Amino acid sequence: SYVLTQPPSVSVAPRQTATVTCGGNNIGSKSVHWYQQKPGQAPVLVVYDDTDRPSGIPERFSGSNSGNTATLTISRVEAGDEADYYCQVWDSSSDHRVFGTGTKVTVL
Amino acid sequence: QVQLQESGPGLAKPSETLSLTCTVSGGSVNSGSYYWSWVRQPPGKGLEWIAYIFYSGGANYNPSLKSRLTMSVDTSKNQFSLRVASVTAADTAVYYCARVALTMGDAFDVWGQGTMVTVSS
């Protein structure tokens, strides 16, 4: 089955830029989605199709995808961005949905 | 605005069959633009995709759970459901229902608030 690997944690100072990576075999050929999950809450979609943002998501959230790594970038980080972030893809070979291992973003 | 609401027993005994239902409001399950899905999250752990179903009834299941799963959709009640057979403590988790948007690259664009299920005797 397809595996997505994320760093367990990322720390960033306020107003700086946070980068969360998602590694997978030839992930650049897939469409990657990113979710934000705050404690006790359901996940929220923040980036879909590698680079697109749903309505209501700030422009500070952006994504990219190439080769074996997809990246979520959070610019001008705010305290409210502190959360767990998960990448996700559709594995076409099996028609299954796969989530990454998750990254906890801590705002210092 | 579409909203999803899970309902379930809260507590299940080992070896029993767990039944969960997701009620859709503000939209229809009878749409060719979406799949309807279940995702779970054990306490302190990450997200795990369980299964999805189309309004026509076609379903797809996580291979690690497939032998114990059954999904169904009831368009008359605007609901979809999940049954998990022979539950064990490893099935203890928050269970979320979610909508999969075909126009958004199959992303999970709307989620329910989640329902906690504990498997214990």
Task: Give your account of this protein's structure.
- The complex is a heterodimer of chains A (108) and B (121).
- Chain A is an all-beta fold.
- In chain A, 0% of the residues lie in helices and 46% in strands.
- In chain A, a hairpin with a 6-residue loop joins strand 3 (32-37) and strand 4 (44-47).
- Chain A is globular and about 40 Å long.
- The model of chain A has no long low-confidence stretch (mean pLDDT 96).
- Chain B has 121 residues and is mainly beta.
- Chain B has no helices and eleven strands.
- In chain B, the strands form two sheets. In chain B, strands 2, 4, 5, 6, 9, 10 and 11 form a seven-stranded mixed β-sheet that branches. A four-stranded antiparallel β-sheet of chain B has the order 1-3-8-7, with no helix packed on it.
- In chain B, a hairpin with a 4-residue loop joins strand 7 (69-74) and strand 8.
- The model of chain B has no long low-confidence stretch (mean pLDDT 96).
- The chains are: A mainly beta (108), B mainly beta (121).
- Chain A binds chain B through residues 1, 31, 33, 35, 37, 41-45, 48-49, 52, 54, 86, 88, 90, 94-102, and chain B through 37, 39, 46-49, 52, 60, 62-63, 96, 100-101, 104-109, 111-114.
